[in-house]
Structures
1.
Amino acid sequence: MIYLTKIIDSLADRKSFYCGKSSLDHYIHKQVDQDICRKLAVCFIVTDKNCKIKGYYTLSNDNIPADELPEEYKMKFPKAYSHLPVTLLGRLAVDQKYQVSGLGKLLLIDALKRSYEVALKSIGSMAIIVSPLDTEAEKFYQKYGFVKLPDSAKMFLPMKTVGQLFG
């Protein structure tokens, strides 16, 4: 299987990454190694020929309360499950030099594909969850089919929908 990204490594130049969102810049500069070491997230990157990071995303396991789902989705799951397993797309960022290149879309597709394959073969996950930082990010995810969870800042994309893209 060919992927667009690779797992972050020590050769990647993290210091030059600048996406314009301070929390996302800080994460790749200072926090990512700690999260990886603690097994809190896996970080996937795209680099240029000089190992400068063009974009990145993180994936983790998570769960959501079943009662947070919209009614049309809630009724599809057994009532015995108070929480449902999901994949958290925790961060997705593109360096400002590449923000108009479509790299964000490619990173998202890569994350969806990885998440679907893991859900299919290794670890149960009924959806992919994101918590957009702002309205710009929320519009980005809406464009690709993510649905806002009622009474929450989170958005989700059912794995069944993802499977229609890659299945």
2.
Amino acid sequence: MILLISPLAKTQNCIRAIQEGINEPVRLCARFEDATSLLQEHEVSAVVFDQLLLDAEPDGAEAVLKHLGTAVPVYVNFAVSGARRLIRELRFALQRREREKLAAKQEAELALRHELSNAITALLLSCEMALQAPGLPALAESKMHTVEALAREMSAKLGALA
């Protein structure tokens, strides 16, 4: 959903154009307080701020910005911007949001992969050291070989994901 914050009546035409051009539902809030409430209750992909309202009520805008979550802010002056320009700006902003989400996901996966690789390496070293201990009972040795084989299998799977 896209949230549009503006008290202007002419934004109704923009709403229809956005819904057709972006293919996402659009909710209109005339006041920042209503927008803040909506952001607390719903997931929003983008928030379109009317620049004139921002200038008139900077404190209200600050409250909305605190509740954006993953929504991307788009600032528009409806006095000079038409629906086509707004749709273009929204598309760019939503594409940037998707790229950033993908980059964050890839970074998190890489960090997790490194963390798991370090843990598996430590596990393999511990198994090797335990297997070299003199007088290790046969059952314990068998279990250590099983753990070592599982750790190597996990390591191979992590390597295949890279």
3.
Amino acid sequence: MDLQSAGISKQKIILPDGDLKIYEKKDYSPLTFVFLEQHLGTIMSDPQQVSFMIDYLKQKREIKCSNDLKRTYK
């Protein structure tokens, strides 16, 4: 059931410090190597070219290292 059919698409909740509104948001699925391999296969006829392209992209992606904290409980 979408918001339009539920009759709440234009509802607004007024709060002391602002408003809450319902809106439609688009979430895109992540661009994964599996996705690329599946869809490159539809436009490139040679599976070896697809494999080469995927391997090339994997090798060229940027790697960023950062520090993080991890808490453990006893």
4.
Amino acid sequence: MVILKGYKFRLNTSPTAEVLSRQFGGCNRFVWNRALALQKERLNNKQRCMSYSNLCKLLPAWKKEHTFLAEAPSQTLQQTLKALSNAINEAFTTGSQKRSPVFKKRGHCKDSFRYPQGFEAKNKQVFLPKIGWVVFRKSRHIKGKPKNVTVSREIDHWYISVQTDQKVAEPVHPSDKEVGIDLGIKKLIVLSDGRYTEPLNAFMKAQKKLAKLQRGLSRKVNYRVTGTSWSRRSRNYTGILPT
């Protein structure tokens, strides 16, 4: 099977790479806020949010209006719009716990931008389009096929996160006599060998009977004499008579 795995390393940025990284991070933050303001305006006007592809069609006009956006790699700006669209879709998905995306403030958020292609990691250097080769602190080998690279700033340092596709064997439990047990909701018990037990649904089965007993209980009056009760319907006294 194929899994996704990320590798994070700290960059040793030169003064030029530092300036360009901050500039590109600011451009992507601007595009995020501009697109989010547009989507919120459409929602306030009872209109549907624009799709990712339609948002990308607005980038050329935004670059003409704000010339500094043209200096940032176009693919990073497109990835920012894609991330915003995914965040909005997740927020409006039924049952999702994700909150609606918010505006990013300078200095109050982690600047980041993503390269889906055009990058290259070689030895202890990574090539980032429009930035060049940057040395990173390679603490372990990168396994698998690189899919994308995310550049982010945390406090005063820049980092890269390389996401790769890796092929791994299907996990097989070494023992044929012992199984693992997982308790769930849709399936009550799931064993590691694939067997499962359907939920009992005890409440659903006894719901009508429970409602009937609760109605009968609501018509009864309890007295302080131990073991006594009085039914309003039958008017029959049951219990131990006091002496």
